[in-house]
């Protein structure tokens, strides 16, 4: 088996919990799930049947047919130099009570600055090369993260080493090189990476565009949380605006629609990166307003 070892550093509090929903727990399935999500997100040009076929061949899965059940071709093992330090931190920093006092909504989280190692082994029958696997892991660590509120900057990680080799801080060019190993349908144009496929696309959250901002400070997650709140309620008396916000930015009201606007922290300079996914809400899709997504992007970047 071919093996890669990635060293990761936590940048923002990581609210990743075990079965009790309270005790911080870092597990290999969480990392594999994140890699699977981003693999799917760069392959929106594939038809659903082909997407499922390729995904199952790489990550494993179960299905109705006997041939659908597959073992994962990627094996993940976590290696900790010592138990990761935990802290109590605010999950939703902007949240306030009616009298204006901050409602901290504290929860246990893995602390920023903590490091862990991910050993990823590729079985000989895996359709992905080592270079593609490394690119996918780089993409996952740059654009995403692990745990709750990950789409609003929590649980962000930075890849610092592959084996003994130091990895440079990600830039838009580095992200483009990583994504080009996985798909030919993205290109860098100005300050963005955009999707360029002209054929029919499937209706699920594939990457539409990626934008990188300027370095901030360690309060960036507070800012992201507050900007989300400010944008949602800037027209609080306009019910149509609220409906447009919910189907454009995500909601957890009478059902749950995960935000198609994915905000993460790119590096130790607290540089925000925003990935806008194809927007497929659970209801009221006619109310989608891409201007709301772009306004949020400008507010954060």
How would you name the oligomeric state of the polypeptide chains in this document? single chain
Radius of gyration: 19 Å
Shape by Cα distribution: globular
- In round numbers, the mean pLDDT is 91
Termini separation? 41 Å
Query: What's the arrangement of strands in the largest beta sheet?
Result: 2-5-1-6-7
Offer a concise description of the structure.
This protein has 301 residues and is an alpha+beta fold. The chain contains seven helices and twelve strands. The protein is globular and about 60 Å long.
Summarize the SSE layout with pairings.
Elements (H helix, E strand, L loop, with lengths): L1 E9 L17 H14 L6 H12 L14 E6 L6 E5 L15 E5 L4 E8 L7 H14 L13 E6 L2 E2 L5 H9 L5 E4 L2 E4 L11 E6 L7 H13 L6 H11 L11 E5 L6 E6 L12 H11 L1
Helix pairs in contact: 1-3, 3-4, 5-7
Looking at this protein, list some descriptive labels:
alpha+beta; 7 helices; 301 residues; globular; five-stranded antiparallel beta sheet
Characterization of the model:
There is one protein chain. The chain is an alpha+beta fold and 301 residues long. The protein is built from 7 helices and 12 strands. Strands 2-5-1-6-7 form a 5-stranded antiparallel β-sheet, covered by helices on one side. Strands 8-9-10-12-11 form a 5-stranded antiparallel β-sheet, sandwiched between helices. Strands 3-4 form a two-stranded antiparallel ribbon. The termini are far apart.
């Amino acid at each position: 088996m071919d093996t890669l070892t990635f060293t990761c550093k936590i940048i923002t509090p990581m609210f990743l919990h075990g079965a009790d929903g309270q005790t911080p727990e870092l597990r290999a399935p969480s990392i594999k799930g994140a890699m699977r999500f981003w693999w799917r997100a760069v392959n929106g040009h594939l038809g659903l049947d082909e997407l499922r076929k390729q995904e199952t061949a790489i990550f494993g899965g179960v299905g109705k047919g006997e041939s659908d059940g597959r073992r994962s071709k990627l094996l993940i093992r976590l290696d900790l130099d010592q138990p990761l330090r935990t802290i109590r931190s605010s999950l939703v920093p902007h949240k306030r009570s009616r009298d204006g006092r901050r409602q901290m909504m504290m929860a246990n989280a893995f602390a920023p600055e903590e490091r862990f190692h991910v050993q990823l082994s590729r079985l000989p029958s895996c359709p992905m090369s080592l270079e593609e696997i490394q690119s996918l892991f780089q993409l996952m660590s740059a654009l995403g993260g692990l745990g709750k509120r990950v789409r609003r900057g929590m649980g962000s990680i930075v890849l610092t080493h592959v084996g003994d080799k130091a990895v440079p801080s990600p830039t838009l060019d580095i992200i483009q090189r990583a994504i080009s190993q996985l798909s030919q349908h993205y290109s860098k144009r100005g300050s963005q990476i955009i999707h360029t496929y002209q054929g029919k696309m499937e209706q699920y959250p594939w990457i539409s565009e990626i934008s990188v901002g300027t370095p901030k400070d360690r309060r960036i997650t507070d800012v992201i949380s507050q900007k989300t709140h400010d944008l949602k309620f800037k027209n609080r008396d306009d019910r149509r605006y609220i409906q447009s916000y919910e189907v454009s930015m995500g909601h957890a009201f009478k059902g749950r629609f995960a935000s198609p606007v994915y905000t993460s922290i790119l590096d130790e300079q607290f540089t925000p990166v925003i990935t806008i996914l194809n927007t497929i809400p659970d209801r009221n899709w006619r109310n989608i307003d891409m201007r709301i997504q772009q306004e949020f992007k400008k507010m954060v970047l």
